[in-house]
Amino acid sequence: MVINTKLSFAFLLFSLFFLSVTFSLVVANVDPELQLCKRQCWVHHEFSHRQRRECEQKCEDYHGQKHGVGEGEGEGGGGSRIVLNSDTDPEKQLQQCQKQCERQREQQKEQCRRQCQETYERQRGEEGEEGGGQSGEKDEQGRQQGQGQGQGQEQEQEQGQGQGQEQQEQNPYVFQDQHYTTSLETSEGRIKILQRFHQRSRLLRGLKNYRFVYLEANPQTFVLPAHLDAETVLYVASGRGTLSLVSQGKRESFNINQGDIVRIRAGTTVYMINRDKNKKLRIAKLLQPVALPDEFQPFYGPAGENPESFYRAFSEELLSSALKVEQDRVQRVIKQQNKGVIVKASEQQIQALSQREEAGMFSFPFGSTESKRVFNLLSKEPSISNRYGRLHEADANEFQQLQDIDIAVSYANITKVFPLSQL
User: Where is the Cupin type-1 domain (predicted)?
Assistant: First the structure.
């Protein structure tokens, strides 16, 4: 299986949180299985444009056979479904879709019609691209006639790859490196922020008040304390470390490993250590801003000029009095730290920090703090597991920390290209 490494990594990180949230907020009235099956057709760049269309059609055929046209339309049906037949003519599909909308409940008709129109416009646009690609291919073959079958096949393959890359760029569910902005970067790591979801596509407008952040820290590093004005769901994509949370004068520390999910409330000061000597610590975060829609701001405490500490908003005399430390010590903390938010730590410093954090780990008669604050997604039995891969899912039933923010987390490890309906 040929995989574009950057695309695959970015897509996997994003899908950890985005998959479940998208279903609940954007396409709640469309069968999630059909939606996900069709999305998978566009993820793999080795598919040609025609193969992707055929893959989509197979998804629809399977869905129609499984559910039947009009399922769920009666009382107690649990919501509406839009089921298209095997006709590939967009005009006919639009007419059929609109007819199905008329059979929906009154409050669902408008949304159903809008979904039909969006599907029609997307299919018409794809047909135009396919026609242009075929015309260009014929012209190219005419110019290259007589230069050998082998060269012609090579050019055809390059055209297919170019078309696949173009489709990836147009697919609103695929995010690549160019869709990220580097917020902070040092020699020991970086923090990147994904563009706003609704700016990528109007299909993602239901995710307007969510932001995605990716953190990468080199081995044996320290991530400076900071807090956000946003609710955070954190997923450890790879590596291991120690995470510390400080809120209302209380500190909690616990070890984190690959697959761990942590809920962090807005305003909580967070800092962490990558204790591993060889592996990078990679963390994906889904943020829900609480101050302004789709706007969030990190606030760094004992930083300096890079990044700028929020302590600089206060006079040194006031800080000295409030923190009960000498004024020259305040000056050193605020002005001398200019190495960035992720800094290298020696093995002795890592050990000292780890021992200090272990002192903040408490045990209770009815379970540890760590067990309540951390949930390992990969330790849970997969929801689906077969020769094509595994799907792990967790919601508020498994991890109560997710209950009040209405978010579920899923992780898919796909080992072979397939229509998702075969799972």
Answer: 172-331
- Residue among 52, 44, 15, 206 nearest 115 (CA): 206
Asked whether residue 377 carries a pLDDT value surpassing 90, the answer given is yes
Residue (of 255, 256, 181) closest to 212 by Cα position: 181
Residue 272 DSSP one-character state = E
Residues 107 and 220 in one domain: no
User: Are 194 and 180 within 8 A, CB to CB?
Assistant: yes
**pTM summary value:** 0.56
List pLDDT tens digits, range 39-98.
666 655 556 677 777 777 877 776 676 655 444 443 333 333 434 444 456 777 777 777
What are the strands of the beta sheet with 211-217, ordered from one edge?
180-186, 189-194, 211-217, 281-289, 230-238, 260-264, 374-376
Whole-angstrom CA distances from 142 to 135, 138, 147, 158, 272 are 11, 6, 10, 16, 61
129/72 same-domain check: yes
Radius of gyration of the chain (CA): 26
- Asked if residue 365 and residue 239 are part of one domain, the reply reads yes
Same domain, 68 and 95: yes
Residue-range definition of the domain harbouring residue 369: 178-303+340-379
Angstrom distance (rounded) from CA 44 to CA 4: 9
Residue 351 tokens, joined: 């050990």
